[in-house]
Amino acid sequence: MSNSDAVRMTVDDCAVLQLPRIDRAQGNISVVESERHVPFALQRVYYLYDVPGGQERGGHAHRTLEQLIISCLGAFDVVLDDGNRRRTVTLNRSYYGLHLRPGIWREIVNFSSGATCLVLASQPYEESDYIRRRDEFLRFKQGGQDDVRHRSGLIA
Length: 156
Ligand code: TYD
Known about the structure:
Layout: H1 3-8, E1 16-18, E2 21-24, E3 27-30, E4 44-48, E5 57-62, E6 67-73, E7 76-81, E8 86-91, E9 96-100, E10 105-109, E11 116-121, E12 130-131, H2 134-141, H3 148-151
């Protein structure tokens, strides 16, 4: 995935995938196999939990990272924004995953009490893959001007 793909990515490129379910009277299982149930190779798993009421997460975009976001417990809303349009996806079932693409600004809001957000990611943690400033994101989406000096804070 190159920078120019991330520049062109829109909120409509973020699909909600239905994951396999093995339903039994004694409880259910859902499963995600790398490159089979998600369209990328998995390299990292992390999860958000103990989110205080009213707290919001996210507020950034990624340059190349692909992610699958699952609500393992409870519910939350993922607000997607491509710099042009916004779309809100509610996740409240363990057998749905939102495929979050690079070049999409995301905020995760309205966490229910005890909600647990599982994230499967295509790469290890790398701070340089983040776009954390909104103005930098909008510049990036307006033609891929992605000056490394902005990233390093050398120019405003
Ligand atoms: P961040 O991705 O900004 O959190 P969120 O989008 O959920 O609000 O990460 C918060 C902090 O955690 C940041 O300092 C980086 C650190 N972090 C890691 O060290 N490794 C990871 O895999 C992740 C996701 C975050």
